[in-house]
């Protein structure tokens, strides 16, 4: 069996590790991957949709797993399936659930899915006029298109709202600010049936106590026991209606659907949908999955999700991202990554490259460390002990991953 994983980050590294439980590492390819992933897996210098399709036509992988949203928004799944190459990922049309905030919000409104109230704007002048008129803050300003997890700005006042709108593209969504606590849930669906995973919780903001700008994610943990009492409500009022809505709109969803949720005093509400597995939640969840990940993927491809039985470890998982100082803004790179043994945590590489046999930093989120424990406290203790054994100039990380108080 030959598997191609598309992407270059920690999520893709963790996907490779999940597949490696079922098949030989030599049969797993990652495109383009990174210098850290290449220590264990074959990385291919495929940099765009066309190059990926060409390689797949020549090499005929048994399965393609798409990590980043950009490729799905560009229609990679459509193209591969048209060539008879099985691809785990929604169609370009269904991927609009993430690639267009306006599409997603319109769909949620139409199918009565609980979410924040919003106003969508086609140009900045209209949005600026609106926030100048509004007197109630905070407000949430979102870019309409893809923004790698960084297109959401919480504006505490008019000045911040105006700055956010100017910084984003022309089309923006201005949303009501929801109060509560966040949780993430992945949906596994073949377009007809669905199953949901354990809950995880991402820590998106750069600084401790959820301060600073939004990032692609600074860490995550799983499971989130406080969310379990909401599972049935989420599945009945959010998951089932959005999948039915997509089907009714002519774009049935097949793949992994990420639900970013806020648990409010009124109940769960949708913050966002993503058309793929999230990063870093994937790194926290997959090590706890005891069902074969390959089996999960084939259940999606073969319309057998109804028969899928998900088994999970009783342990807890904590993932902490080590980033370059300056991220998510500008930051220097090229610093050696030094790892001192022994490390019990799993390392998932992201922004690194291999230069003459030495891993050096090359991105904002450099790597993530994931530890398992019999409970969150033990997993947290293990991962933070191991962080001291991984060093590079400008290493930055949050010290409070998994300590958030989940109360409305």
Automatic annotation (TrEMBL):
EC number: 6.3.4.13
Lineage: Bacteria, Pseudomonadati, Candidatus Cloacimonadota, Candidatus Cloacimonadia, Candidatus Cloacimonadales
Keyword Ligase annotated: yes
Keywords: Ligase
Domain of life: Bacteria
Protein name, entry field: Phosphoribosylamine--glycine ligase
């Amino acid at each position: 069996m030959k598997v191609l994983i598309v992407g270059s980050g920690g999520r893709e590294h963790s996907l490779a590790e999940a597949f490696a439980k079922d098949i030989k590492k030599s049969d797993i390819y990652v495109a383009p991957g990174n210098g850290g992933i290449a220590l264990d897996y074959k990385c291919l210098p495929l940099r765009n949709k066309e190059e990926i399709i060409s390689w797949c036509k020549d090499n005929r992988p048994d399965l393609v797993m798409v990590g980043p949203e950009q490729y799905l928004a560009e229609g990679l799944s459509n193209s591969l399936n048209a060539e008879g190459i099985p691809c785990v990922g929604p169609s370009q049309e269904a991927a609009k659930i993430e690639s267009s905030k306006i599409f997603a919000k319109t769909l949620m409104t139409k199918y009565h899915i609980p979410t924040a109230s919003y106003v969508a704007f086609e140009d900045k002048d209209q949005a600026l006029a609106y926030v100048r008129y509004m007197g109630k803050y905070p407000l949430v300003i979102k870019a309409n298109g893809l923004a790698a997890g960084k297109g959401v700005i919480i504006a505490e006042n008019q000045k911040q709202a105006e700055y956010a709108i100017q910084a984003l593209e022309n089309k923006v969504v201005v949303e009501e600010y929801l109060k509560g606590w966040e949780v993430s849930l992945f949906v596994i669906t073949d377009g007809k049936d669905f199953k949901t995973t354990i809950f995880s919780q991402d820590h998106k903001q750069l600084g401790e106590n959820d301060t600073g700008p939004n990032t692609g994610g600074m860490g995550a943990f799983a499971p989130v026991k406080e969310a379990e009492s909401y599972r049935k409500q989420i599945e009945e009022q959010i998951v089932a209606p959005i999948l039915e809505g997509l089907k009714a709109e002519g774009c049935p969803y097949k793949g992994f659907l990420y639900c970013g949720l806020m648990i409010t005093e009124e109940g769960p509400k949708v913050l966002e949908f993503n058309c793929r597995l999230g990063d870093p939640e994937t790194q926290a969840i997959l090590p706890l999955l005891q069902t074969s990940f390959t089996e999960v993927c084939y259940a999606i491809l073969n319309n057998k999700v109804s028969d899928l039985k998900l088994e999970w470890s009783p342990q807890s998982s904590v993932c902490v991202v080590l980033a370059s100082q300056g991220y998510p803004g500008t930051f220097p790179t090229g610093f050696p990554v030094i790892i001192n043994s022994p490390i019990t945590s799993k390392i998932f590489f992201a922004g690194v490259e291999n230069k003459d046999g030495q891993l050096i930093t090359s991105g904002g989120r450099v790597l993530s460390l994931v530890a398992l424990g019999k409970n969150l406290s033990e997993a947290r203790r293990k991962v933070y002990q191991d962080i001291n054994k991984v060093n590079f100039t400008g290493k930055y990380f949050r010290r409070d991953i998994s300590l958030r108080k989940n109360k409305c």
